[in-house]
């Protein structure tokens, strides 16, 4: 038996109404997509329409910590240790200069010093020896343990004073002219070359000895370019 017309009509009317209500409710995906679109639009708009930035302020640039012609003090220490921190050892201090103008090249900025050094037994037996050069603004110490020490007011560098070369050995070659003097063994200066390496294979392992560097030159590099 068919249902009454009134009830059937009411049922047909309610059915489409529920579907329309469900379609009108926005989902989470649609909301997220809208947020992403707004963020992308804001990013490109800020890129194209934002005012152009001028050059960075001088305080934001990386530049030399020292000024041209600024007076510097210098200390040079000799030590058998590659790492140096014995600033209170007066015996290790071999050279001290004050008021050296930085980045001023002339007679007034050059310093010279000659030293007569007596090597220790350790250095005589192929030990190492290093020169530790330190610079600081005049009035500031190079010792990090000093209360007045400033990290940005001092700097230093270590340089090896000795170099290692193969030990000199007598030349075993003899003159074929019959000269007695030429047949004597001649000392060959130490050089690292293929001939020395070939001889070392015949005579056994090469013996290396330390040689004193007679001259050390200290030059300060100046660069006043500002970097971002």
TrEMBL record:
<dbReference type="GO" id="GO:0016020">
    <property type="term" value="C:membrane"/>
</dbReference>
<dbReference type="Pfam" id="PF05602">
    <property type="entry name" value="CLPTM1"/>
</dbReference>
<feature type="region of interest" description="Disordered">
    <location>
        <begin position="1"/>
        <end position="26"/>
    </location>
</feature>
<feature type="compositionally biased region" description="Low complexity">
    <location>
        <begin position="10"/>
        <end position="26"/>
    </location>
</feature>
<protein>
    <recommendedName>
        <fullName>Cleft lip and palate transmembrane protein 1 homolog</fullName>
    </recommendedName>
</protein>
<keyword id="KW-0812">Transmembrane</keyword>
<feature type="compositionally biased region" description="Acidic residues">
    <location>
        <begin position="185"/>
        <end position="197"/>
    </location>
</feature>
<dbReference type="InterPro" id="IPR008429">
    <property type="entry name" value="CLPTM1"/>
</dbReference>
<comment type="similarity">
    <text>Belongs to the CLPTM1 family.</text>
</comment>
<keyword id="KW-0472">Membrane</keyword>
<feature type="region of interest" description="Disordered">
    <location>
        <begin position="174"/>
        <end position="207"/>
    </location>
</feature>
<keyword id="KW-1133">Transmembrane helix</keyword>
């Amino acid at each position: 038996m068919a249902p009454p017309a009134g009830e059937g009509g009411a049922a047909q009317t309610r059915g489409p109404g529920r579907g329309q209500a469900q379609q009108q409710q926005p989902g989470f995906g649609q909301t997220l997509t809208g947020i992403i679109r707004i963020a992308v639009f804001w990013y490109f708009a800020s890129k194209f329409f934002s005012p152009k930035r001028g050059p960075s302020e001088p305080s934001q640039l990386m530049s030399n910590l020292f000024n041209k012609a600024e007076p510097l003090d210098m200390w040079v220490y000799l030590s058998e240790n590659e790492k140096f921190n014995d600033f209170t050892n007066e015996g290790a201090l071999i050279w001290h200069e004050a008021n050296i103008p930085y980045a001023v090249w002339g007679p007034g900025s050059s310093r010279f010093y000659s030293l007569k050094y007596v090597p220790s037994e350790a250095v005589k037996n192929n030990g190492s020896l290093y020169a530790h050069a330190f610079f600081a603004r005049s009035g500031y110490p190079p010792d990090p343990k000093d209360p007045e020490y400033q990290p940005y007011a001092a700097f230093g560098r270590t340089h090896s004073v000795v170099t290692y070369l193969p030990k000199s050995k007598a030349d075993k070659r003899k003159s074929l002219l019959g000269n007695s003097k030429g047949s004597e063994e001649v000392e060959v200066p130490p050089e690292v070359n293929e001939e020395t390496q070939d001889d070392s294979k015949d005579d056994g392992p090469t013996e290396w000895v330390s040689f004193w560097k007679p001259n050390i030159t200290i030059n300060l590099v100046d660069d006043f370019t500002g970097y971002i």
